[in-house]
Design goal:
Blueprint lengths: L6 H5 L4 E4 L1 H5 L8 H12 L4 E4 L9 H4 L4 E6 L4 E4 L4 E5 L4 H11 L5 E6 L2 E5 H5 L9 H9 L1 E3 L2 H7 L6 E5 L3 H14 L3 E4 L5 E6 L4 H12 L6 E5 L5 H6 L2 E5 L4 H6 L2 E3 L6 H11 L4
Parallel strand pairs: 1-2, 1-12, 2-3, 7-8, 12-13, 13-14
Antiparallel strand pairs: 3-4, 4-5, 6-7, 6-9, 9-11, 10-11
């Protein structure tokens, strides 16, 4: 790749890289491009560990991502679980307490929300949500993805009681942006010790306070014996903010949220033009790996 390396890039010593999936490492068709694949392979060849950090549950992580030799650690559900490919096991987990789940449902009961629950890497959703996703702000490719990946729940109350202590996180979909903001504020006030974030305009994602991509990546870095100052972290949405701020080289995608780009150290080109690869090649060319 042509172009000189600026002073900030030259002063950054890359030791690890973390990537969000949707809107970042994956293109608009939710596929890994040849360009981004080649960049990940180059990281592996340079001995740079690669971490996937997604809001997705493990069951929906693309097989082509899990098959990459460059990828060892996979953070899922916005940091509620960390999977280690080498051990073929979950090495970290934090779940919502039954009282937290009850409080979330009580707070949300008067809002027009579609409810999702995530347990052990699997995704479940209220059947009323799955029967009419468009009423809750789900459209386009997200519509098909939701129906393909969520298992229907006919009785939410019975489901919650049967899985008490096992629910890793929850998602609430709401089409009205003003109501979403109002509900978010109420959840923050009325439910104790929770982490609240969003990867999509329609979505409120709720987990225990110990969750978050930044917290999970910190666990991985400790296992690797690395510091966050050498981490390059790439993302496009609210749920990527923590890891971008914590990283030595935080990268927001050009297609990402405006406030995320304000906080990032670097703006990558759009995810549909191999934006991730373009930044990785520049960092590798800097000779500081």
């Amino acid at each position: 790749m042509s172009g000189s390396i600026d002073k900030r890039e030259a002063s950054f010593h890359l030791t690890c890289a973390a990537f969000d999936l949707d809107g970042t490492l994956l293109n608009a068709q939710s596929r890994l491009s040849d360009g981004n694949r080649a960049a990940l392979e180059a990281l592996e060849a340079a001995g740079i560990p690669v971490i996937i950090a997604s809001g997705r549950p493990f069951s929906t992580i693309p097989a082509e991502i899990l098959a990459l030799d460059a990828v060892r650690y996979v953070v899922t559900g916005n940091g509620v679980r960390i999977y280690d490919k080498a051990q073929d096991a979950t090495i970290y987990r934090c779940s919502l307490a039954p009282a937290q789940v009850d409080a979330i449902l009580q707070t949300a009961q008067y809002y027009p929300v579609g409810k999702e629950f995530f347990i052990s890497g699997d995704a479940f959703a209220d059947r009323r949500f799955l029967d009419a996703p468009e009423q809750f702000g789900v459209h386009g490719a997200a519509f098909d993805y939701l129906l393909r990946t969520r298992k229907p729940v006919d009785d939410v109350g019975a489901f919650v009681r049967a899985n008490a202590g096992e629910i890793d996180s929850m998602g609430l979909s709401i089409a009205d942006g003003a109501l979403k903001d109002q509900l978010w504020q109420r959840l923050a006030r009325e439910v104790e010790d929770v982490y609240i974030t969003s990867s999509l305009p329609r979505l409120i994602e709720i987990a225990d306070a110990r969750a978050g991509k930044a917290a999970a990546i910190a666990v991985v870095l400790e296992r690797l014996g690395l510091e966050a100052s050498g981490l390059a972290a790439f993302g496009d949405a609210d749920n990527d903010l923590g890891m971008i701020e914590a990283a030595g080289w935080g990268v927001a995608m050009a297609n990402g949220a405006a406030h995320l780009k304000e906080k990032a150290r670097h703006i990558a080109p759009d995810h549909d033009v191999d934006g991730v690869a373009q930044v990785i090649w520049r960092l590798l060319e800097g000779g500081h790996t």
